[in-house]
Amino acid sequence: MPVEGVRVVAFDVFGTAVDWRTGVARAVAAAAARRGAAVDEWAFADAWRERYHPALGAVRSGRREWVNLDRLHRESLDELLDRFDVGELFDDRERRELVRSWHRLPPWPDVGPGLERLRADRTVAALSNGGYALLTTLAKHAGLPVDAVLSAELAGTYKPDPHVYRTAARLLDVRPDEMLLVAAHHWDIEGARAVGLRTAFLERPLEKGPHGLPDRAVDVTSDLAVTGFTELAEHLAPPAAA
Amino acid sequence: MPVEGVRVVAFDVFGTAVDWRTGVARAVAAAAARRGAAVDEWAFADAWRERYHPALGAVRSGRREWVNLDRLHRESLDELLDRFDVGELFDDRERRELVRSWHRLPPWPDVGPGLERLRADRTVAALSNGGYALLTTLAKHAGLPVDAVLSAELAGTYKPDPHVYRTAARLLDVRPDEMLLVAAHHWDIEGARAVGLRTAFLERPLEKGPHGLPDRAVDVTSDLAVTGFTELAEHLAPPAAA
């Protein structure tokens, strides 16, 4: 049965729309080659992403003032380069370049065609913990067809804080139940449900690599469970006439 | 001599990118026909726009808390319908429809091709006093090729308050002098210059109709004076390699 009344499709970005692991690992491998450093790029990418939740949590809990994701990425990068014993080989310029690899990530193949289709009859927005500039660059670089970029930065905190979802709905002037969040992570789906958004869990079996343990649809409660953005478009009822 | 170092082209919307007068007058004429009301649609559109600056000024000065442009448009519409002696013919639904005519305005013909060209090698953003939802709908409806929508709503005040331009540069993570504002109004150009943005005055001889008095390039101090977005693209130096 199609889900009705959805005026805005808001989608999570890292993991849900783009393959951060491949994009970051490639950038790490290229930088390591330039610097003559021996680094397992996949292990490095995984370790970098592992620091994501603790770093965001410090801001979300109020233990730390708002800083954007670029800054958090830089801090965890500095720590990781030392832990991988290659700190002395990467200067500031190379580190800045690595932080920017999160601005240029490859989309999963279903994203472009799926968003294009969704966008034909409703508003499509990125809703991510990435900063506003990061998301703007990422959407442009990946050629994502979006109508709006809704960064957590606009709320001054991070998902799954309720304020992020509510700010998104307010800015697009829709009720929470007129906005559907698409995400590959249970905590994001739960955060959206808690403030009354509709939700679509999108399973990304390869998000964390061939041996990773991504979230699975069977473990997540959501209005819809889909395997890609194209399939999502099939599950939404056409919008009612304005 | 081309202007160098511009990473973001931010453009004003009403008058600069879209022909508000024609769009609004058509909507007023259609509504008047539906309601059997005799209204000079061009005079009505002009009078509606005349209320723009006083209404925004109340928020900018702090005399009034933040309200978005839709709300201000509705208040001035209610007043104007009475002044045009047709108030009793327009119910709430029709009034809401008229307010939404500001979300669906025709672009000037140079805008699509010009923005497409500008967007090929830098970030292009709408920077308007229209609300975030209004601008998102307007850009989508008019098919404007933009990378970002930067509403004054994100700053909680209206142009030419310096906070609006500074918020835009901060969100896109550029220095003020790396952002160029394109506008057809002297007060907007002056506001942008005051905080260190680069500026391009774009003359729109027909913005206020065949007998109107639009701002003229000869009266405005700006880095560039152009007659359209396509010409603007010719005046910007290619971006330096990152």
TrEMBL record, chains A, B:
<dbReference type="InterPro" id="IPR023214">
    <property type="entry name" value="HAD_sf"/>
</dbReference>
<comment type="similarity">
    <text>Belongs to the HAD-like hydrolase superfamily. S-2-haloalkanoic acid dehalogenase family.</text>
</comment>
<dbReference type="GO" id="GO:0019120">
    <property type="term" value="F:hydrolase activity, acting on acid halide bonds, in C-halide compounds"/>
</dbReference>
<keyword id="KW-0378">Hydrolase</keyword>
<dbReference type="InterPro" id="IPR006439">
    <property type="entry name" value="HAD-SF_hydro_IA"/>
</dbReference>
<dbReference type="InterPro" id="IPR051540">
    <property type="entry name" value="S-2-haloacid_dehalogenase"/>
</dbReference>
<dbReference type="Pfam" id="PF00702">
    <property type="entry name" value="Hydrolase"/>
</dbReference>
<dbReference type="InterPro" id="IPR006328">
    <property type="entry name" value="2-HAD"/>
</dbReference>
<protein>
    <submittedName>
        <fullName>Haloacid dehalogenase type II</fullName>
    </submittedName>
</protein>
<dbReference type="InterPro" id="IPR036412">
    <property type="entry name" value="HAD-like_sf"/>
</dbReference>
<dbReference type="InterPro" id="IPR023198">
    <property type="entry name" value="PGP-like_dom2"/>
</dbReference>
